[in-house]
From TrEMBL:
This protein's UniProt keywords: Iron
Ferrous iron transporter FeoA-like domain: residues covered: 7-80
Annotated PANTHER family: FE(2+) TRANSPORT PROTEIN A (PTHR42954:SF2)
Pfam families the record matches: FeoA
Gene3D superfamilies: 2.30.30.90
Protein name in UniProt: Ferrous iron transport protein A, putative
Amino acid sequence: MAKRNNRCLSEMKPGERFRIEKVAIPDAVLRRRLLDLGFVPGGEVEVGQRSPLGDPTAYYVCGTTIALRKEESNYIYGEKIGHD
């Protein structure tokens, strides 16, 4: 089965919504922490503000705001949902 439009979470722009398909972070401790925070396959994330220098970025997930660095959000794959 072919993947749809798989992208990294870090490629999304503020205001866009994203459905997670895979969390592929090689660091097991960080992977577990992100899963515990709600970055789980099937979960939805909204991209919030980027810091003035572009890193980190705020993400709204499970009713809370989480800031991730680009190096972390590069390992979260899925698809943009909503308007194109």
